[in-house]
Amino acid sequence: MGSGVELPSGRPSGLVGRQVAHYRIDAEIGRGGMAVVYRAMDLRLGRTVALKLLAPELARNDTFRKRFAHESRVAAAIDHPNIVPVFEAGETDGLLYIAMRYVPGQDLRALLDRTGPLPVATAVRIAVQVASALDAAHAHELVHRDVKPGNVLVAEGTDSDRPEHVYLTDFGLTKKSLSLTGFTSVGQFVGTLDYVAPEQISGRPVDGRCDVYSLGCVVYETLAGAPPFRRDDDMALLWAHQYDPPPPLSDVRAGLPSGVDAVLAKALAKAPEHRFDSCMGFVTELRRAAKGRAGGPDREGTGGPDRPPEDHLDFPPPPAGPPPPPPAPPLWALPVFRGTGTAA
Ligand SMILES: Nc1ncnc2c1ncn2[C@@H]1O[C@H](COP(=O)(O)OP(=O)(O)OP(=O)(O)O)[C@@H](O)[C@H]1O
Ligand SMILES: [Mg+2]
Q: N or C, which end of the chain is more exposed by having fewer CB within 10 Å?
């Protein structure tokens, strides 16, 4: 692909094969509410990267733009094994882009959608790595603000002691601080509200403990198969985060060690001062509780030599052969076609 094939609508078939700044776009990896992520080749260094193109609405928003510049710089300065390294953040043709390490594997959203709830040991191993990344960011005064399964990338680990290697991505790239009412001024959805902390909703100042809350929601989902609060509409969901007690995990998943409920309840406390002070504080307690006596029949350990047989993830093989035809790019990406002779 990439030969400028026109779809019946007259829209180009994709950016695949095109060049954006000094990157050649090879395949679309995924898209969220505010960006499209591509596998691309950095033509200057000859290495594969993940190239994220952000919607131009964000480039026009001064608050976002300033935060993007600042937080990309801070994120790039954090050298941590569980944080996706940022290579470059820049702008071309009115689009903000960010080039980062390409992580082969899948994100935790895709993993949970495919497998459902994870074995306790796997959930704990993933939580520990995300927590370590978050505490490192907090030590640099950087609050993530958008911890959610889609921002946790799960790659194959090195050996049976570390069956998966987890990377956290997208620091400071959330739109939620710009609008929490569900839609931005131009009607674009802000993304999921399943993991948002009460103080983010009420507009109070946030610190690292808002990431403790969101990580609590993510851990809850990895164990229960669904986040703590599910409501029919956004307003009800925001209300629940602020005022409703989360259902005990043991109501949703049988057989968990009895101490796990209390640990999750503390991570999900409404007031930041009632939560764990740090993400590692949370997952250390989680790991300890998970080693306790199970309350039911499907008892599980936390790894080690007697790791249960189901405690491993299947990693999809790397893409082979030519990629499938990409979907049409979003309209906002069209400016990068200018000058290539394929723009509509
Ligand atoms: N560095 C990377 N390496 C490999 N895949 C990545 C990388 N960064 C992102 N992806 C993939 O691209 C997908 C889309 O990312 P994106 O951040 O745009 O969306 P999201 O996080 O799912 O949603 P949102 O728009 O709310 O942020 C991710 O879910 C992930 O699967
Ligand atoms: Mg993301």
A: C
Give percent of the chain with pLDDT exceeding 90: 55
Residue 169 CA to ligand 2 centre (angstroms): 7
What is the rounded distance in angstroms from the CA atom of residue 58 to the CA atom of residue 333? 13
- For residue 249, what is the enclosing H or E element? helix 249-252
Q: Choose between 30 and 58: higher pLDDT.
A: 30
Closest protein CA for atom 25 of ligand 1: 32
Q: In whole angstroms, what is the distance from residue 47 CA to residue 102 CA?
A: 9
Greater confidence (129 vs 203) lies with 129
User: What pTM value is reported for the model?
Assistant: 0.82
Tell me the one-letter amino acid at 343.
A
Half-sphere exposure of 135 (CA within 13 A, CB side): 15
One-character DSSP codes across 228-239? S---SSHHHHHH
Pocket test for ligand 1, best of 38, 169, 190, 332 (most atoms within 8 A of CB): 169
Residue 337 in contact with ligand 1 by CB distance below 6 A? no
pLDDT at res. 184: 46
The answer, yes or no, to whether any atom of ligand 1 lies below 6 A from the CB of 150, is yes
Q: What is the DSSP letter of 83?
A: B
Q: Which domains does the chain have, with CATH numbers?
A: 18-101 (3.30.200.20), 106-291 (1.10.510.10)
Which residues form the catalytic set?
146
Span from the CA of 32 to the centroid of ligand 2 (angstroms): 7
Cβ 33 vs Cβ 71: under 8 Å: no
What tokens were used for 167?
């990377």
Number of helices followed by number of strands (H, E) in the chain: 10, 9
Output phi, psi for 100, to 5 deg. Answer: -145, 175
- Beta strands 152-159 and 86-92 are unpaired
96: pLDDT strictly greater than 60: yes
